[in-house]
Specification:
By secondary structure, the chain is of the alpha/beta class. About 25% of the residues lie in helices and about 30% in strands. The relative contact order is 0.09.
């Protein structure tokens, strides 16, 4: 039997305290009136979740376009929580760590999972290096890549960590191979109520499908004429979700992410994915960067490199691993990249700083 959104699991705990439905409203008001900024965000969401409406309003991150407010059905969020619980075999009474900001969907869903699945949830301030009890055992946690990078030496007592909000660099993937925690990269967006697919990225033991995302239960995937991912998730959304993510389908339940359709560079008839070029450069670049494009009289479009630095000087040896058309024709520097509220680089807004 699927639980209703207006029911709280009797095993749910928040910072070691149990709450009935009405009690949780008082906690929410207390967080809003007296809490730290991150606790106020938690209180605001709990007030929205516990009201009489069947939906909540959620703001998208703005990483793929202008931020907007969308309406998510609370029961759909319940279905998302259950799918995550089923995939990761979470049980009532399992302990979870919440260290994401609750004004975005990923943080909101950590609260929903706890209330619906009956998890014991500990709150930590959502800083780049969250402080929590490193000796305590946790079954589940969600982080952004920067948080994982800063805390990976303290994560051995966390059974499973899901990582999203931004791409996981090859350097970070290499660094987490030695920790006991099972780490999964996620694929999803606000419109899909966080992740609809995950892939394990450490301690793979020779798995041949290491680069493939595997869908959660009741998710159906296909491609449109652009080879972009189309998601059918009737329990999450009444409409098909057509993405701008170019993928390679490997089965009905697995796919490989290639890059953003709106980022593709057509350079002299050769289609190039900036994300794939970035992956080749990650291990040799010492500063943050991204690949994008600009108009070129000869090629139509050409590759350019944007670095977060005061100088645009880059050693030529950095590009030795690239193919001819992948080598940037120009390098620009920006002292500070523009980011979304979840830490994603806003490429278009950053590029405007050099125009």
């Amino acid at each position: 039997m699927i639980p209703a959104y207006n029911k709280i699991h009797n095993r749910f705990k928040l910072n070691d305290s149990s709450f009935l439905y009405e009690d949780l409203k008082e906690v929410a008001y207390s967080h809003v009136k007296e809490g730290l900024p991150y606790e106020k965000n938690i209180g605001d969401f709990l007030i929205d979740w516990l009201d009489d409406k069947e939906y909540v309003l959620v703001q998208t991150s703005g990483s793929t376009g202008k931020p907007k407010t969308i309406k998510l059905q609370k029961q759909a969020m319940v279905h998302s929580a259950i799918a995550t619980g089923d995939f990761f075999k979470l049980e009532p009474g399992d302990k979870a760590l919440h260290c994401l900001p609750s004004n975005y969907i990923a943080g909101k869903m950590m609260l929903v999972r706890a209330m619906i699945l009956g998890l014991e949830l500990d709150l930590a301030e959502p800083t780049s290096q969250p402080l929590f009890d490193y000796e305590k055992h946790y079954d589940f946690c969600a982080m952004i890549p920067l948080q994982l990078q800063k805390t990976m030496t303290y994560c051995n007592n966390i059974k499973t960590i899901i990582v999203g909000g931004a791409s996981v660099s090859s350097n970070l993937k290499a660094a987490i191979q030695g920790i006991k925690t099972n780490v999964f990269e996620t694929y999803g967006m606000t419109e899909t109520i966080t992740h609809i697919a995950v892939k394990k990225i450490n301690n793979l033991e020779g798995e041949v499908e290491a680069c493939h995302f595997k869908t959660l239960p009741d998710i159906h995937i296909s491609q449109d004429e652009r080879n972009c991912l189309v998601i059918e998730a009737p329990k999450l959304s009444e409409d098909k979700i057509v993405t701008n993510d170019v993928v390679k389908l490997h089965s009905e339940t697995s796919f490989e992410w290639l890059g953003r359709y709106d980022h593709v560079v057509n350079s002299g008839g050769v289609k190039l994915f900036p994300e794939q070029i970035e992956a080749k450069l990650e291990s040799v670049m010492s500063t943050r960067f991204f690949i994008t494009k600009e108009e070129d009289e000869t090629l139509g479009e050409c590759i350019i490199l944007i670095v977060e630095s005061k100088s645009n000087t880059i050693e030529a040896s950095v590009f030795e691993g690239l193919e001819k058309f992948e080598i940037p024709k120009k390098i620009y520097s920006v002292e500070k990249f523009i980011e979304s509220g979840t830490g994603k680089i806003l490429r278009q807004e950053t590029v405007k700083k050099i125009k």
